[in-house]
């Protein structure tokens, strides 16, 4: 299993709308093949910024299968109009080393 970490910046004044859109859209994302979890965390040092953590069974499920899915386009339509700039994406193994 891997975690995708997406650092997102939201247009000023639209934070609550964005949070509601993520909450409403999370079942869409969670229904994607290989998605195991969806969590959103506000950045406590930078207002309007968030960390979206998505669990995937494999990196391939996210990078190959998901972009071609209907869920990908529905998820993007639900949140992309709130974003300022491109998300910063990173992927990490879910198994801790310690």
From TrEMBL:
It holds the Pfam family ABM. Gene3D superfamilies: 3.30.70.100. Residues 1-62 form the ABM domain. InterPro entries: ABM_dom, Dimeric_a/b-barrel. This is ABM domain-containing protein. It comes from Streptomyces cinnamoneus (Streptoverticillium cinnamoneum).
């Amino acid at each position: 299993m891997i975690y995708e970490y997406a650092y997102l910046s939201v247009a000023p004044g639209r934070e609550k709308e964005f949070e509601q859109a993520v909450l409403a859209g999370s079942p869409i994302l969670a229904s994607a093949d290989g998605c195991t979890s969806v969590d959103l965390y506000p950045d406590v040092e930078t207002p309007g910024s968030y960390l979206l953590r998505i669990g995937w069974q494999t990196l391939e499920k996210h990078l190959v299968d998901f972009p071609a899915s209907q869920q990908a386009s529905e998820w993007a339509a639900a949140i992309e109009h709130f974003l300022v700039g491109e998300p910063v994406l990173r992927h990490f193994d879910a198994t801790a080393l310690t």
